[in-house]
Amino acid sequence: MASYIEISYFDIAMAALLVLANGLISLFLKLKLEKSLLIAAVRMVVQLLLIGYVLKWVFSADKWYVVLGIVAIMTVIAGLAAYNRNRVRYDGMRFDALLSVWLPSWLIALIGLILVMQVQPWYMPQYVIPIIGMILGNTLTGVTLGLDRITHELQQKRDQIEMMLSLGATSWEAFRNPAQNAVMAGMMPTINSMMVIGLVSLPGMMTGQILAGQDPEQAIRYQIIVMFFLSASSSIGCVLAVILVFKRLFGKHHNFMYWKLQEK
Questions:
Q1: Looking at 8-152, which runs of residues are DSSP E strands?
Q2: Do 19 and 139 belong to one domain?
Q3: How many structural domains is the chain composed of?
Q4: 23 and 96 belong to one structural domain
Q5: Could you tell me if 33 and 51 lie in one domain?
Q6: Kindly report the CA angle at 189 between 135 and 125, in degrees rounded to 5?
Q7: 37 and 102, same structural domain?
Q8: pLDDT in tens, the chain (264 residues)
């Protein structure tokens, strides 16, 4: 089996010079993104280095409660990120975003790790943390897009929704079209990724395994099942988020409580 090439801090510094190209483009086009680029680059390096040290400690500890604690923290951060990225909000949206990210991510990860991959013991950090991390990240994207689309659709189509309700439509009949559009928006990035994977893009997980000397065929098999995990979790999370919005904004008497929607 081939060995991987070790990366030094000098190599990282050399690669960081490439980010200067982004800064030059920003200066040339007067985009005023230099500060944001610098902050983003520094944050990325610091965050990844810190998580590297944390994962090294977690791997050496090899305790289920440590792994579960790390995963719980990752889940809370993902849920809050899904909430914070939306401009239109309502009371209870933070909880809905967290639940929509947490429930499908953990459910799919549990099925994938125990039933599909048959990881023994179930809390092996080198499997649990990377896979749940990928699932959380993808679910976060789907939930964020779904929530953003549904809240904007409800704002823009308020008159249409209220007209349908006044003509005798049920809450769900009035809500169905915005809900369909929101779920489609949330699922589309994953579908697009699956359509071109292997032809246009080589995913990070598969590439990382190949660079580390793993058999390419095994790396591809891992990537295939992970993509199925991502697709399932993202779609379930998006649907759950939309259903929770429906529960929050439509009353039992088929009334649309549009006043709960507030701009950030």
A1: 88-89
A2: no
A3: 2
A4: no
A5: yes
A6: 15
A7: no
A8: 456 678 888 888 888 888 888 888 888 888 888 888 889 989 999 988 898 888 889 888 889 999 999 999 999 999 999 999 888 999 999 999 999 999 999 999 999 999 999 998 888 988 999 999 999 999 999 999 999 999 999 999 999 999 999 999 999 999 999 999 999 999 999 898 888 887 776 677 777 777 777 788 888 888 889 999 999 999 999 999 999 999 999 988 889 999 999 887
Considering Cα of 208, then 212, then 214, then 217, what sign does the dihedral take?
positive
146 shares a domain with 72: yes
Pair 148, 233 in one domain: yes
Question: Residue 263's beta-bridge partner residues?
Answer: 88
Residue keyed to tokens 């507030």: 262
Both 37 and 131 in a single domain? no
Q: Are residues 120 and 235 in the same domain?
A: yes
Quote the Cα angle for 189-191-193, to 5°: 70
Closest CA to 103 of 262, 220, 239: 239
Instruction: Name which of 241, 230, 30 is nearest 149 in CA terms.
Output: 241
Domain of residue 182, residue span: 62-263
What does the DSSP 8-state code read for residue 89? E
- As a dihedral over the C-alpha atoms of residue 74, residue 76, residue 82, residue 84, rounded to 10 degrees, the angle is -120
Which of the listed residues 10, 40, 60 is the one where a domain comes to its end?
Answer: 60
CA angle 101, 104, 106 (to 5 degrees): 90
Contact between 147 and 82 under an 8 Å Cβ cutoff? The reply is yes
User: What beta strand segments (E) does the chain contain?
Assistant: 88-89, 262-263
Burial (0-12, 13-18, 19+ Cβ within 10 Å), 167: exposed
Which of these three, 43, 60, 77, is where a domain ends? Answer: 60
